[in-house]
Design a protein that fits this description.
Mean pLDDT: 96
Helix content: 25-40%
Strand content: 15-25%
Structural class: alpha/beta
Shape: flat
Largest sheet: 6 strands, mixed
Length: 400
């Protein structure tokens, strides 16, 4: 028996790691990666990089066709699977929606545009159609009226891994039941559904519909909606009814612009991530507190995976670090390569001989044993810097 994880990103990596954790022999695990995976980590870790680092054989799709008793699990795999080409019949997929709704593409966007209050993930058999196979299991989660498509996508990753863990042993033992998908409530969207090169916000709709457009197209790693030349991070529906025809700019300041719609005025908040990270660099707590009160998400990352906490640590902003801890920011945040906050603090301490921030993080429970995507932890890197003061401090908290 061979088990193939086919796909990309953290969902494929987590699934493969879980197989190893339940004592599936490594010799029985293989991978099939997406064509777009260049082996470099970005806002999502590279499945190709992980497989090469951990000695997992990478197969081309065509090589899988002749493997008998293959268990093939698609986790964001980028090719349509044709079951008739496989000798094996054990072909499965986890789709990011509550099938039969939202087959195909843009499953993080379409439920928002259609004002859904929940979505979920579906484990199903692969048949000749597009996401039409018999359903094995599903998990759902609620969508509130402020969540955006990027946040839904991250929830899909989380719930898909839970669904994988819940069902993998039954899959391996061929102990599953499934049911035919209903035609009622079924929907499908192709790549042609949305032209991302020409996204425009249509104000000739209700404020709720405009708000949903902003949420639906707010997926920071790829794009933010643009209005009046401003990138828009999020929006709020106001209580004032619109007095002018839809699409009229009625107010603007440093942070936001207001427009009329069919019914209520809407407030669109300009993207301030650059300003947030600049404030973190200079330790400007007052400015960050102001943005927080305006509902800005201070925890967003730039294209390197740096957030406000990483920037604060890197720039030795002790007071800001204390403020971030007091406001429950994640002590174990990582960048795109899995470099932890503690690793940044260790590097800064090794270079400056000041361990205040590193001690602060340790005292508040930072995890020193997390490995980055090169399978190294803070102790490995500390030995490279060879600062005796830092190494002594770390060794006091080393958990063998």
């Amino acid at each position: 028996m061979k088990i193939c994880i086919a796909g990309k990103n953290s969902i494929a990596i987590n699934a493969l790691q879980y197989l190893l954790s339940i004592n599936i022999e490594k010799k029985n695990i293989i991978a099939c990666i997406n064509e777009t995976d260049n082996g470099l980590n970005d806002w999502q870790p590279s499945f190709k990089h992980f497989c090469k680092n951990n000695g997992i054989p990478i197969f081309q799709l065509q090589q899988l066709f002749e493997i008998e008793n293959l268990i093939f699990i698609s986790l964001e795999f980028d090719k349509l699977i044709k079951p008739k080409l496989f000798k094996s019949k054990y072909l499965y997929n986890i789709h990011f929606s509550l099938l039969p709704a939202y087959k195909g593409m843009y499953t993080s966007i379409m439920p928002i545009l259609y004002n859904e209050n929940k979505t979920g993930v579906t484990l199903h058999k692969i048949d000749e159609g597009i996401d039409t196979g018999e359903i094995i299991d599903q998990l759902f989660f609620e969508i509130n009226d402020i969540v955006n498509s990027f946040e839904i996508y991250m929830s899909y990753l989380q719930y898909s891994f839970t669904l994988f863990q819940k069902n993998i042993l039954n899959i391996l033992e061929n102990n599953i039941t499934s049911k035919k998908q209903s035609a009622v409530g079924s929907s499908y969207y192709s790549k042609k559904t949305i032209d991302f090169k020409n996204i425009t916000i249509n104000f000739s709709q209700t404020a709720n519909q405009v708000h949903n457009q902003i949420r639906g197209f707010a997926f920071r790693p790829y794009q933010l909606p643009i209005v009046n030349k401003y990138k828009i991070a999020f929006s709020k529906i106001l209580e004032t009814k619109s007095s002018f025809k839809p699409g009229i700019l009625i107010y603007e300041d440093e942070f936001k612009i207001q427009y009329t719609t069919i019914d209520y005025d809407i407030e669109l908040y300009k993207d301030m991530l650059g300003e947030i990270l600049n404030a973190a660099q200079s330790g400007n707590i007052d400015y960050l507190n102001k943005l927080s009160k305006l509902s800005y998400n201070l925890d967003e990352k730039n294209d390197k995976g740096w957030n406000v906490f990483i920037v604060a640590v890197y720039n030795n902003q002790i007071d800001l670090c204390e403020w971030l801890i007091a406001n429950s920011f994640n002590l174990n945040v990582t960048n795109n390569n899995g470099t932890t906050l503690a690793m940044y603090a260790m590097t800064m301490a090794s270079n400056t001989n000041s361990t205040k921030i590193l001690e602060l993080l340790i005292q508040n429970g930072v995890d020193l044993n997390i490995q980055d995507f090169n399978n190294k932890n803070i102790f490995d890197y500390a030995r490279v810097y060879n600062n005796s003061k830092v190494i002594t401090l770390l060794n006091m908290y080393k958990n063998d």
